[in-house]
């Protein structure tokens, strides 16, 4: 049996007919849980560090830098895990 990870904490900042903006706070080792993105989205890291992306194709480490955004399309399925020894924070902007 694997060790249970702490949950990442989402705080929805905006939810209207055009976008959903959510701040995600990950304690060290924290995870989102498996999910599928229903919209295209942009992630804006607020801290610098590594996230572990668990996908159907395996695990991948992503190096993120505060303020350097990236885009992904609708349909991405994964579990996102903070691989840092410090809190990791990003803002996710989903485009409806």
Could you explain the architecture of this structure?
- The chain is mainly beta.
- It has one domain: Sandwich (Jelly Rolls), CATH 2.60.120.
- It contains no helices and 9 strands.
- The protein has strands at 9-15, 19-26, 35-36, 40-45, 49-55, 58-64, 70-72, 77-82, 88-95.
- The strands form 2 sheets. A 5-stranded antiparallel sheet has the order 1-2-9-4-7, with no helix packed on it.
- It starts with 8 loop residues before the first strand and ends with a strand.
- The relative contact order is 0.35.
What topology emerges from the helices and strands here?
Layout: E1 9-15, E2 19-26, E3 35-36, E4 40-45, E5 49-55, E6 58-64, E7 70-72, E8 77-82, E9 88-95
Antiparallel strand pairs: 1-2, 2-9, 3-8, 4-7, 4-9, 5-6, 5-8
Give a quick summary of the entry:
The chain is mostly beta strands and 96 residues long.
Shape: globular
The CATH class designation is Mainly Beta
- The helix content is under 10%
Label the structural class.
mainly beta
| Uncertain regions spanning at least 5 consecutive residues | none
Key traits:
96 residues; 4-stranded antiparallel beta sheet; 56% strand; mainly beta; Jelly Rolls; globular
């Amino acid at each position: 049996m694997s060790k249970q990870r702490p949950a990442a904490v989402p705080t929805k900042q905006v939810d209207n007919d055009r976008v959903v903006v959510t701040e995600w706070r990950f304690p060290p080792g924290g995870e989102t849980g498996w999910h599928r993105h229903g919209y295209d989205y942009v992630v804006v890291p607020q801290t610098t560090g590594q996230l572990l992306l668990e996908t159907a194709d395996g695990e991948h480490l992503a190096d993120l830098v505060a303020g350097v955004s990236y885009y992904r399309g609708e349909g991405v399925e994964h579990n996102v895990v903070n691989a840092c020894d410090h809190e990791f924070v990003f803002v996710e902007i989903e485009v409806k």
